[in-house]
Amino acid sequence: MNNEQFEKLVFLTQTDTTIGFVSQNAEKLTTIKQRPPHKHYIKAVNSLKTLKTFTRVPTKHKNRVRRSRKTTFILPNGYSYRVIHNKQHLLLLNRLQWAYTTSANLSNKAYEETFAKEVADVIIEPLNDVKQASHIVKLGKYTLKRIR
After folding, report:
1. Which domain holds residue 118?
2. Which residues contact 95 (CB under 8 A, 6 or more apart)?
3. Which of 55, 68, 72, 110 sits 20 to 30 Å CA-CA off 133?
4. Which is nearest to 16 in space by CA: 116, 84, 112, 118?
5. Peptide bond into 36 cis (omega under 30)
6. First to last CA, the chain
């Protein structure tokens, strides 16, 4: 399988926080989740170096982002990013470098394993229990606001 085909797939996998869909194809995720197309997805990145290709982290918050675990940051550009440190999740992300990530359920519904397995192109096992979602923090140039 070439990289272009690989990048269009939707993976069902255990992420660093929950069982989720991972893909570089936002339109396909939007269709699967039946979610409004204007809503942004969290972009999971495999390293700080990859994060720098998308945005600039305000100087005041660089150490916080570098040291964080299981935390999503909404940066001043309005987009959400999470640097992944979990070894299992990094096996996939190192191949992709970045991917949109979302919980494996219909929008505003509970997780159903049968639905998730039916709509995913590739299932990466083991799929562990659903854990707590990531913390979400909104970073301003100088401010910090906890969202979840």
Report:
1. 3-146
2. 6
3. 55
4. 84
5. no
6. 38
Token pair for residue 81? 């990013």
3-class DSSP state of 134: coil
Tokens of 133: 């979602």
User: Closest Cα to residue 23, out of 116, 118, 120, 106?
Assistant: 120
Q: Which domain CATH number covers 103?
A: 3.90.870.10
- Predicted confidence at residue 23, as pLDDT, reads 95
Task: Count the domains in the chain.
Answer: 1
Neighbours of 86 (CB within 10 A): 15
What confidence score (pLDDT) does residue 104 get? 87
The token pair that represents 69 in the structure block: 């675990």
- 126 burial type by CB count under 10 A (0-12 exposed, 13-18 middle, 19+ buried): exposed
Write the pLDDT tens digit of every residue in 53-95.
999 999 999 999 999 988 999 998 889 999 999 888 898 999 9
